[in-house]
Design goal:
Blueprint (H helix, E strand, L loop, with lengths): L4 E2 L5 H8 L5 E5 L6 H7 L4 E6 L6 H11 L3 E4 L6 H7 L8 E5 L4 H5 L24 H7 L2 H12 L4 H14 L5 H14 L6 H16 L2 H15 L5 E5 L3 H13 L38 E7 L2 E4 L8 E6 L2 E4 L4 H9 L1 H4 L3 E9 L5 E10 L3
Bound molecules: S-adenosylmethionine (SAM).
Length: 377
């Protein structure tokens, strides 16, 4: 479990480029997480940031920022679908000059086995980001087969959705499905049964994602957050959305098109075309989304829970360190790795700083590298 977080958020350089030159005024960071984007904005003069996050787990990070920036920063533990109320109730004098959504989960949420978000760790089926009415346990144990199939189909785009739903319903006739690993077993059973050439990561990540989207009503949240954001933005203000998957991406494009001079698709999901209201509010800066560059990196500290010996030339030396849910190769000279192996028992429980690059859709870090190991204070 990460104890500290020096999070360089995904696409922070791109966000910085879009916001430069930074105007003075109010910025709303709708997805505070580890506070990376908030901190970047606060580092510029004459900015104020109102940050939201539905997960109260992030509050300690907000307190650290609060100490440093005092009156220029406020954190509210709420969902961004509530943005309209938050802005009006708090009587924020100024309309925001920018509103930012960095969608998805933070590494804290993924790495915490108690969250039940990751198929790579065993945990109770939860997947709640905060302020939820239902959990993954409810979805998996209470919905009927048809609804389960639809969810896996629509939000997970899994071609074996029907069989997975059927096996879930069969299994829960014996006993409730309570853990992430029970669900993983069912998904893989369905894949084996179909004798598909399946990829464990893809299969599980998509089904888990589809359940998570329902538990947290993620598309509804996004839709409402965007509409309230757009309506409250100052003239010449900027709205930035970092999406994680194609369903979010499509929704953002539809809403942006609707509020811009682009063609207005008549969708029953968009606001009613009221003659008195001006929907021509946005100017879409570029049709092509900006995509993440490979060199984005995260920097976080994790607790070491295991040590693995290297293979081949690395025998007798530390090869990998094991953390909750993932492992990582250690960098360094052979002498250093040998010394680590000799002292392997004392490594358990220490903190390791890890650099890692872009996350996969289920948040598994890619290109991991341990850069430092130290004791707990
Ligand atoms: C990818 S992380 C954001 C990382 C952040 N930009 C940073 O720099 O550390 C997404 C965060 O948004 C939060 N979140 C997701 N949906 C939300 C919603 N509807 N309302 C408020 N917060 C939400 C999650 O709890 C999570 O902490």
């Amino acid at each position: 479990m990460s104890l500290e977080f020096n999070h360089i958020p995904v696409m922070s350089e791109e966000i910085d480029r879009i916001l430069t030159p930074y105007k003075s005024g109010l910025y709303v960071d709708c997805t505070f997480g580890g506070g990376g984007i908030t901190k970047k904005i606060l580092s510029k003069k004459n900015t104020k940031v109102l940050s939201l996050d539905r997960d109260n787990f992030v509050e300690p990070f907000s307190k650290v920022i609060s100490k440093q920036y005092n009156k220029r920063f406020e954190f509210i533990n709420d969902k961004f679908s509530n943005l309209q109320n938050i802005l009006s109730e708090r009587n924020f004098q100024k309309t925001p000059v920018a509103i930012i959504f960095d969608l998805g989960l933070s590494s804290f949420q993924i790495d915490n086995p108690e969250g039940g978000f990751s198929y790579r760790q065993d945990g109770l089926l939860k997947m709640t980001m905060g302020k939820n009415n239902i959990s993954a346990h409810d979805i998996v144990n209470k919905l009927d087969q048809k609804n389960l199939k639809n969810i896996f189909n629509l939000f997970g785009e899994d071609k074996d959705s029907g069989l997975i739903a059927k096996l879930i319903v069969q299994k829960r006739q014996d006993k409730q499905i309570t853990s992430t690993q029970e669900l993983v077993e069912i998904i893989l059973k369905a894949k084996r049964y179909k004798n598909n050439k399946y990829n464990k990561v893809d299969s599980c990540a998509k089904i888990f994602q589809s359940i998570r989207m329902i538990v947290n009503k993620e598309l509804t949240e996004l839709y409402e957050g965007l509409i309230f954001g757009i309506k409250n933005l100052s003239i010449d203000g900027k709205i930035i959305v970092i999406t994680f998957h194609s369903l979010e991406d499509k929704l953002v494009k539809k809403v942006f098109d609707f509020f811009s001079n682009k063609k207005k698709g008549t969708s029953r999901y968009l606001p009613e075309n009221n003659q008195n209201e001006n929907f021509n509010i946005l100017n879409i800066v570029s049709r092509k989304p900006v995509v993440a560059s490979e060199k984005e990196e995260y920097d976080a500290e994790f607790e070491i829970i295991g040590v693995e010996e290297g293979k081949g030339k690395l025998a007798g030396k530390v090869g990998k360190l094991v953390f909750n849910g993932f492992d990582s190769a250690v960098n360094g000279s052979h002498e250093y790795l040998e010394e680590l192996w000799l002292n392997r028992d004392s490594l358990i429980g220490k903190k390791a700083t890890i650099k890692y690059f872009n996350l996969t859709p289920d948040g598994i870090p890619r290109f991991l590298k341990v850069v430092a190991i130290r004791d707990y204070e």
